[in-house]
Amino acid sequence: MYLLATRPDLAFSVCLVARFMERPTEIHVAAVKRILRYVKGTVSYGLWFEKGKDDELVGWSDSDYAGDLDDRKSTSGYVFMVGSKAVSWCSKKQPIVTLSTTEAEFIAAANCACQAIWLSRILDHISSRKKDCITLYCDNSSTIKLSKNPVMHGRSKHIDVRFHFLRDLTKDGKIQLLHCSSFEQTADIMTKALSLESFCKFRDVLGLYYCNAHKQACQAYEPGLLARHARAAAVA
């Protein structure tokens, strides 16, 4: 689990297998071995931060729907970027069973908003940024409408009051929830297993690079080489 502190690309897979630590089966052991093979093939990957770059905080929030086949709970995920690098991320199963994709996405966005406020306060203390409103991206239009609508209706009246914290933040102008397409949803890598192409695309967006220890520098792989390297690690 300690690798997740610097490897956001491992968050979903590691958190998924961690749910079965009490009674693992052969399938779970095989999944862990595959993760370890991927780590071995990408052991030199890491995040590289440069001084003086853009310090704007931007977040992405996403959720699958009833992805856990045992209890039908959904998985929330969020990613926060400062400039072009990920600084905070999470993949976590939701505490309740949701009745729609909108509800699952709304709960994910509420958790993301809480993290956004905390990160914003930290950045305010360590930098000169003076931006009050934080931009969060979500790929569910109904969730965005629900966050701006103070009226309870049939499809939302049962949602726990703690998750409506998002409405207050939106009303006060502290959070700006905007729509993005599913193809641009960076937090998608935190909620479900993706195709190799999508996985590599979002991994690059997170700012993970191949770190050359001999030169003590981080260099981006050439696109073709990166794809071959990732494919070899994923298939191994």
TrEMBL record:
Protein name: Copia-type polyprotein
Organism annotation: Trifolium pratense
Species classification: Eukaryota, Viridiplantae, Streptophyta, Embryophyta, Tracheophyta
